[in-house]
Amino acid sequence: MRFACGSAWRTRLGYAAHSVRLPALRAGGGVCVLVMAAVCWTAAAPARAHHSYGATYDTSREIKLEGTLVQFIYRNPHTFVHVQAPDDSGVSQRWAIEWSGTSQLANNGITRDTLHVGDAVVIVGRPSRVAGEYRVLMVSLKRPSDGFSWGSKQGEAVD
Predict the structure, then answer these.
(1) What's the pTM?
(2) For residues 157 and 159, what is the distance between their CA atoms, to the nearest angstrom?
(3) 25 in helix, strand or coil?
(4) Residue 111: how many CB atoms within 10 A of its CB?
(5) Does the domain formed by 53-150 have CATH 3.30.200.20?
(6) Tell me: the pLDDT tens digits for 41-93?
(7) What phi and psi values does residue 131 have, to the nearest 5 degrees?
């Protein structure tokens, strides 16, 4: 069986202007399917190598932030909420709170219009492992002005 996926694929695999004889897996082009699967598997390596939250955040601790929302970045792979809130010393800091991706949030009813700059929020999260870094992994969020909350119901967790 001849490798017949097209000259572009032969070139990418290092087989320029000639065809290569490969053993047939099954009649009708099984080799082409196998090669395409291998290419897709390799291209998806970054997705399979997703980072561990435990490497970035201290998952054994939780902190509570009470402050004002200064930025809401609704995007993939992770949404971020930036809040101006005091640190342990009472000094106001800008905190970056990592949240879920847009698909998971949308499944929980969160859209890009759910939060607004200026909202007073209370956030519970897991702090960064790096001392002096004002970064947190979201555990729960509450907006006292209208009772909105996230993180207390089934399925509301950062994966």
Answers:
(1) 0.67
(2) 6
(3) coil
(4) 10
(5) no
(6) 444 444 444 567 778 899 999 999 999 999 999 999 999 999 999 999 999 99
(7) -60, 135
Which residue type occupies 56? T
For 3, the 3-state DSSP assignment is coil
Could you tell me the CA-to-CA distances from 30 to 8, 12, 43, 80 in Å, in that order?
18, 19, 20, 44
Domains in the chain: boundaries = 7-48, 53-150
127 forms beta bridges with: 136
Report the half-sphere exposure of 131 (CA within 13 A, side-chain side).
0
Rounded Cα distance, 95 and 4, in Å: 54
By residue count, the chain amounts to 159
